[in-house]
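Good morning N.,

You mentioned wanting to compare the apo and holo forms, so I went ahead and generated the holo version with flavin mononucleotide. This is what I fed in:
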Amino acid sequence: MDHQRLSMSVGEAMFTQRAIRRFRPDPIPTEDIRLILEAAAKAPNGGNRQIARFLVVTDRALVREFGKLYHEAWWAKRWDERRWTKLEDIPPEDKNYRAAAQLAEEMRDAPCVVLALAVPPGSANSVIPACQNLMLAARALGIGSVPTTLHAKVMDRLYALLGIPKDVSFHFSIPLGYPRGSFGGSRRLPTSETTFLNRWGTASPWA
Ligand SMILES: Cc1cc2nc3c(=O)[nH]c(=O)nc-3n(C[C@H](O)[C@H](O)[C@H](O)COP(=O)(O)O)c2cc1C
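and this is what came out, ligand included:
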């Protein structure tokens, strides 16, 4: 596999990765989707048992149907958490939820959605590192992504839509596309607050 095409430095990829939720309609070349999936396959996983499976959805009708389920799931989660039912319920200053609500509208138009799944025993631990590899490889190719989850109420219909066997576990749905907008600029807590040295609560050397 031509991994030389992922020549962006790891630092640049990690430090400019952020949730991309607005996509241009341009399709992603199949060889790029393949390279992204090859990068995902290289991730660490428990006992190298390789239980992760990826379902790449590019068929327009299927992405549209998925988008409807995603929309329903996103609002079902907001109802469970906050009793929100519509955009006006989201405080204008809550930029993250506003952007996420926008994705709920637009998921149906994403050029590609990758479902991250696992065969039994299905544990997330062995899928999540692969998803981060996948998203960093996408970033290196100028392709945006965001990990998203669904809601129990849509799962039966999702599995029926895509022919996913019942014993397969769902972990993430990851839309992929060239961004409308730019990469970069995520905000995180200072590591001096989130990192301890030797004992919980002892400041890191750079605190
Ligand atoms: C476990 C997990 C679940 C997430 N679920 C969603 C989701 O359902 N919808 C969404 O738009 N973003 C989702 N995200 C993306 C997060 O909101 C995003 O990574 C976070 O706000 C940081 O964004 P930033 O990297 O742009 O700063 C999820 C991320 C993770 C790790």
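The longest helix spans residues 60-82.

Happy to go through it together on a call whenever suits you.

Best,
F.
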